[in-house]
Amino acid sequence: MTDTEAACVFCRIVEGVEPSQTIHEDDHTIAFLNLAPATRGHTLVVPRAHHRDLADIPPDEAAHVMRATVEVSRRLAGALGARGVNLWHASGETAWQSVFHFHVHVVPRYTDTDLTPPWTEIEVPVESLRGLGAEIRRFRPAPRHLL
Length: 147
What we know:
- Helix content is 29%, strand content 17%.
- It is built from 4 helices and 5 strands, in the order ααβββαββα.
- The protein has a 5-stranded antiparallel beta sheet, covered by helices on one side.
- This is Histidine triad (HIT) family protein.
- It holds the Pfam family HIT.
- InterPro entries: HINT (IPR039384), Histidine_triad_CS (IPR019808), Histidine_triad_HIT (IPR001310), HIT-like (IPR011146), HIT-like_sf (IPR036265).
């Protein structure tokens, strides 16, 4: 385990040296209940290998995490009677990432009001997005471009 991994609480959970309530695991991922749950059953799905964020994780590893996320979402909804599920991911401190090991939050939803939306949706005319769309399409990131 590298110094970065040794300092990472999620790496310690993967290694089995930090306790967790694991609800799913496979060769590439592990999923465990969040210690600070937004709702009952709030679960984190993480790759076994340490990747800091979305810019750092290789696409094939991210695909493994998403497959596990689908499985965990189905398990939570069925076992807990959740009527919906929210997925949440944050990459970078500005985006509220607090543990710098790639992860996806799976948040079971039971009512329309058990969470507050993190933003307010205000629709704008599609024409006003033309310049922004062109700017994004022109950008070609370098491999593993940092966020």
